[in-house]
Protein: USP domain-containing protein
Organism: Champsocephalus esox
Amino acid sequence: MFGNLFEEEEKEGFSSTSSGGRVAKGGDEPPPPRGRSTLCGIKNQGGTCYLNSLLQTLLFTPEFRGELFSLGADELGCLEDKDKPGAKVRVIPLELQRLFASLLLADQQSASTADLTDSFGWNSSEGTNQHDVQELNRILFCALEHSLVGTTGSTFIHQLYHGTIVNSIACKECGNVSQRQEDFLDLTVCVCGVSSLEEALWNMFVEEELFEGNNLYRCGQCDRLVTAAKSAKLKKLPPFMTMSLLRFSFDYAKCERYKETGRYVFPLNINLRPFCEESDGEDSDYSYELFSVIIHKGGCYGGHYHVYIRDIDQLGQWEPPEEECKIKTQKVKDEVKQMCEPTLQEDDPLSVISAIITQELSKSVLLDQLGQKIMDKISSSWCKKFRKHYGPIGKFLQSHNDVFMLVSNGTRVALKANPPSPVTETPSPAEQTTDSEPSTPADPGAAEEPKPDLKPEPEQKQGSHWFDLNDSAVTSIMESDIEKQFQGKESAYMLFYRKTQLQRPSEALKNPEYKVPLNLIKMAQEENIRVQKMREEFEASNNTVELHLHLAPSYRLENGALQPISKEQSASTPLSFDRRKTVGDLRLAIYQMQELWEGDMALTVARSLPAGLHLYTTLIDDSVSLYSAGICTNSDLFVWNGREVCGAAVLTGAEWEPVLLNVVRPFLEDCVQEKADEMECEEGRESLENGGPGLKREARGFAGAATLGEVREALGEPQESLLCQEHKGGKRGEQGAGEGGGASGWRVFPPDDMHRTLKELSLKDGDALLVLEPQSFDSSVFTRNGDVVTVTTPSDCRWLQVEFRPHGGVGEEGDKEEERRKIKVPASGNMLLCEVKQRAIEELQIEEQTSGAQHCLRQVDCTGKLLPPVCEELSVRDAGVRLMTTLTLSPGNAPKASQLFLHFSVGTAPSAGFEKDILVEKSCTVKECLKAMLDDVGLDGTCWHLRRLDWCEEVGEPIMDEDAPLSELKINNGETLIVTEGQLPPKGFLKLSVWLYLDPRNNSSDFTGFNHTDNGHTEEQMLELLTASETHSPSPPLCAGNTAELRSAGQVEISDEATLEDLKTQVLTLPALQDVCVPITAFMRVWQLECQRLARILRGQQLTLKKLKLTSGMDLCVQPLLQEEDLGPKDVMLNVKMGVPGERCFYPTEELVWDAARDSSPRSLRTCLAAHYGLSPDSLLLAKHQPDQHTWEEMSTWNQQASKKKKKRKAESLLGAPFHLKDGDTVGIKNLLIDNNRNFLTLEDERGQQRLREQAEQCRKGGPAADSDGVGPQKKAGPNKARKPEVALSINVGVFR
């Protein structure tokens, strides 16, 4: 009954690949066969466990099943004709017949009720709603009776379940008895205050209720109030007696529902003679035996149903649970569990779900059982415990798809770290899926597995076998297990008794085809043949693995790993093979492929590593299947003699796994070309080049179990040579030497490390190993300081290119190509930048041309833009200048280490090339910086302040603290500041943009007058606001067909401590609003705009702007009104319009203020509208317009669903889900007294829906969606997932009278 646990899994990328490389190739996985019980379960559609439990009870009621199967096609019709006009097909009984036949005959673990619920008229969401099984029992019987009108089965529900109660009132004075009969299909018995079913029946049918004292009875014969006694008796007993236990009650003191969980005993056999009016019959006429118990687990606001059923016809294979064995082994399991398993953290959902999956034998859990198992584990449901913080279970599993995975075609959830293995899995009696170990093909030589010794089944009377049918799972239980359902959160809810005199014929025992129509038997057989063929095809395709064979003659041992001899040809041979076959079969197949193979053949699992191919485990046992040997798709197998490859012995196993190291050796720079010429292969040249001048790099592979000393011997180095590992803090290889000119650092391995293996030293593929001889330290390239070796290779002594630009610009027209000269200056990382500049000036010979002008060095970014000048007091490395890059020599002063280089402009954001530069001290204040900038441009006065640029490169917020130093404000080198005219606004001031709202309905010149000249705005600054029929705005304020204009009125700066009334007063002083006639501020309405859409009305004249949560930069809209307005906090301004009777249109829109302070329910709004229009509230039909979708949402029959987390029922409110009524929403009204049309859609709505469909189709094709409202591109809001309303359970039945 956990309706929406997994409703979103199909939308997210949740992994459903099973383990072990088993990937479905043949499409959808076929349904798994029945379990050991040979009974079929029913799939849960999300919340249909109540339906599943009742259907299983009816299926195992043989008389009900027989009556249903006795109805033929001549009476019920044919399902193929249900869509034909005029055909009277009784769909519900036909679908019920098919479902029962599938449950009896189809070879599948569980059947689907989708077709049956479709015949009920249920939509997809109905399958996730929770309902009461007693309510379903009555509604289903009623639907069947209506469906079978006019057939021979029209009375079989009445015959099987109908009983009669006679209620009597006897006058104590005259003895007159007044009787009234009452029919029933099930009895509702009290649970509160009683301890057993017999006691409840005794209180109902034996105890008398006296009318005395103030509670007298008016006797018809005495014609006055008299003392009387009231009693009830069972007059007619049905063959099947259904008892509904009234476990759900209401506490009037706490005003909440609760569930009775106390002990309530019910017998397996009951005699109803004491409760009957006539008691002179045989005992068998009153004796009943229990055959079904529907159990509810959970609370009064949600839970789960399953059913205990007695298999009367012995259709299932019942296996007695070995209780004694369980009790003995359970203690051992508990002890082992306490020692091995960590303590369960009940507040951590990850720990709870992982523990549940780990404790399952199959290492997986059915999705529709996960919610129930969570309740079993922590005695609380997911919704109550975790949903608030972690959301639905489906989303939780998807967000942890690194931990969980879906298997068995998405029907089970398992752990990725411990996936279900067909080899080790021991399926439970109710869970046998295709994940079990694949069956081995018939092999006459294969030995049969010994069957386990089973204890003989104890002899029991006919039909005494009980099963627990829990959705898809079916398990055997003992009759004594029923006593466990007497009390607790998991307890009996409905009891089904049958008369003991009802006997089953012998031919019905163990015969599921008994009385099943031949057409349904044939249909089930054809379905079984189809499913079996699907299973065979699926097994064949799913058990075929793709192998890569590597033949020994194509490989040689090199660098500690196997390398292919020829790089031109592929060294592996693909082979498709059935993993159910044995290793011997694979060996024989390879022998047949390699006819020239001589000698022994060993098959070893291999793996391709960076160093080459490495061998691991050799397959020795020829009788083991490939599946058991762990061979999966894309496995690599090496075919060899098991000893050597090309005369070289090969070490196998994970401990000898090779590591590919970059061996670095020094060499002399003047021998570089000579050594390169001597190399015969191109590989040598590549390694030489990669190492750069001064270092030579070579990739070599070594066994992971080899010691560092053995590596040194393999490299042919003497014992006095040093081995060094690249320093972790340094940069790799020549990158460290090239970027910034720094030397690379290496750590010398101590002598003790020579006896440690590469694995122990944590050396990985790609790590560098420097080999140095003692004489290497004689050169200036290598210096040793303790255990650290610094390599200063000639690659650090490179160059910097300096480009001279006389005008300092980038790409300026005045820069002629001959004037932009370049020179390469030799440089190192330790060289000062002032030396680089001096050398460049000398070599370029520009001292005479510049006449002593100052120059600075500036870097250039990838776009060619000049970066701030570099500090010439620093070295190349410290300044972050990379060698072999270009610096520009430009006019200007170079900054010192204590200075900042800033760009600035006056008034507006600077354009490229029009900003000025200035050098200021980092310690100077904002005021001093501003003064320096004003002096630089020759401006006077104090009416200036500084602003920073925002991320859009536009003028941003002002720098408020003028006395703060630039360093504290984190103003960085190269940043741009804007010198803005005007005094610095005080702290707490807001800058708000104001728009004027022009309503075309108010065509008075007083309201439409607008000063265009003073404001200076053009037509491009006018925004047209479309209405509900033509826009996607969430709150359009107008009726369909009208438009309103928003015109910019300017900006205001006001303190956030000012009131709303102050804001209105200041807005009216704007020049653009001088012609707008507003007597007082109460005649003006202020809206807050969001994305140029009306969002909310600001209310509360004396509330400050801070309390109204207004921030600087917001857009406001002012609307003149015809009357004063002072909205309260809970007042909602709605646009209401009455529908024109008989037409698909509405009268003009009117504004209505609805007071929702005390009551925000639909009845309150309906009463307000009725008073407004002078109509009766019961005659009004209301609907809210959804402009985003061009639809109407009806409000008349809506009831808000009770919260699952709190027992108290929430009050119905239109301000909450799903309607969320707010200012500006449009509400349509229909007067049902004169208008029979309940459809609110107008022609404009239909055109809007058509536009949405066209846009969706355009988006699906990949093209740009056209904007239908004409305002411009708007950000598409995501769909709001409305809460599903609680609806009554119903079944739609056709008319067959």
